[in-house]
Amino acid sequence: MNLSFFDQFTSPCLLGIPLILLSMLFPALLFPSPGNRWITNRLSTLQSWYIDLITKQLMIPLNKNGHKWALILSSLMTLLLSINLLGLLPYTFTPTTQLSMNMSLAFPLWLATLLTGLRNQPSASLGHLLPEGTPTPLIPALILIETTSLLIRPLALGVRLTANLTAGHLLIQLISTATTALLSIMPTISILTSIILLLLTILEVAVAMIQAYVFVLLLSLYLQENI
């Protein structure tokens, strides 16, 4: 029974071929393709408003050099938000519950921000490893600690997103299973658990949006340190 709870996190396969790539590309099909006019319908208007809002929120802390990353960060935010929300639908697969996928997004982008800083301002980037005014005996220990904290940033990004979404999906499945099992035995308790399930689903929608925003926001803050 316990193993069946984790079956939802197994990548679906067709004829032995993993369909995780298809599930990642499917959200892009939901967005309208650009036409000859700037705005064609209400959906494109909503899409333009959303992209404008996200871009403003992410670019405000950055200087002019960081605005080159606007397209990458906005696209990443849209991708993560779409995958997280679609994964809450019944009988769907959520690619962002896979640590391998989240790490494949976090590590290259974190490395790109780090290399950007080392190329443009190497002294300032390396200076973050040693705070000013550090006593001489503590210099080796602080350099080791700061280097470790720098290197675990992509791991923290990937694990945070994976853990939050996985925990939410498991809670929803546990409570929905309890609701179904109690329906014939204790209908009153089943109704109460269904209300809890509804509230938890609303909470998970908020978590899906917040985690997508936090993932991209932290990347923008890492970029801010290196430009």
UniProtKB/TrEMBL annotation:
InterPro entries: ATP_synth_F0_asu, ATP_synth_F0_asu_AS, ATP_synth_F0_asu_bact/mt, F0_ATP_A_sf. This is ATP synthase subunit a. Keywords: ATP synthesis, CF(0), Hydrogen ion transport, Ion transport, Membrane, Mitochondrion, Mitochondrion inner membrane, Transmembrane, Transmembrane helix, Transport. It is found in: Mitochondrion inner membrane. Component of the ATP synthase complex composed at least of ATP5F1A/subunit alpha, ATP5F1B/subunit beta, ATP5MC1/subunit c (homooctomer), MT-ATP6/subunit a, MT-ATP8/subunit 8, ATP5ME/subunit e, ATP5MF/subunit f, ATP5MG/subunit g, ATP5MK/subunit k, ATP5MJ/subunit j, ATP5F1C/subunit gamma, ATP5F1D/subunit delta, ATP5F1E/subunit epsilon, ATP5PF/subunit F6, ATP5PB/subunit b, ATP5PD/subunit d, ATP5PO/subunit OSCP. The gene is ATP6. One of its GO terms (molecular function) is proton-transporting ATP synthase activity, rotational mechanism. The chain crosses the membrane at residues 12-31, 69-89, 138-158, 170-189, 195-223. It is a multi-pass membrane protein. Pfam families: ATP-synt_A. It comes from Sasia ochracea. One of its GO terms (cellular component) is mitochondrial inner membrane. It catalyses: H(+)(in) = H(+)(out). Belongs to the ATPase A chain family.
